[in-house]
Model the fold of this input.
Amino acid sequence: MAKIKVTLTKSTIGSKKDQIATVAALGLKKIRDEKIHEATPQIKGMVAKVCHLVSVEEI
Done:
């Protein structure tokens, strides 16, 4: 399975509560935090929900 690197690029201040929870569930806390995840449909859906806050790179 492919892996993706998710980086938090914008602050979650002012975002909806479900978007803040999604960013936290991805393991991102501060701006420029990076986490590597498997590219499963669940992770892709989470990334799509907060695509305006994160950047994604395939590894």
User: Anything to note?
Assistant: Strands lie at 3-8, 34-38, 54-58. The two ends are 11 Å apart (CA to CA).
